[in-house]
Amino acid sequence: MHAQRSSRPRNGRIQAEMYAVADRYPGPGGAVAVLHEGKVIAQHCWGYASLERRLPFTSSSLFRICSITKQFTCATMLDRYTDPEILAPYIRKRLPHLRSDPPTVTQLAHNQSGLRDYWAVAMLHGAAIEGTFSPTDSERVIAGTHSLQFIPGTSYSYVNQNFRLISEAMEDESGLSFAELLQQHVFDKTDMKRAILAAETSALPDGTTGYEGTQEGGYWPARNHIYWTGDAGMAASLDDMISWEQFIDQQRDDPDGLYNRMSRPVQFDNGHKAPYGFGLQHGKIAGHEITAHGGALRGWRSHRLHCAALRLSVIVLFNHMSPAQQAAASLFRAFLGEEEKPASKPQPTNQPHALEGLWLDEETGLSARITAAGDDKLQLHYLMLPETLDIITPQLAEAGSVRIRHIQGEHMQANAHGPSGPHIIMVRPGENRHVLLRPYPATPQPDPAELVGTYECDELDKSRFVITSQGGLLHGGFSGFLGTGRMERLTSLGPDLWTFPCPRALDHTPPGDWTLHFERRNKHIHQVRISCWLARNLVYHRLAD
Question: Is 70 a known active-site residue?
Answer without folding.
Answer: yes
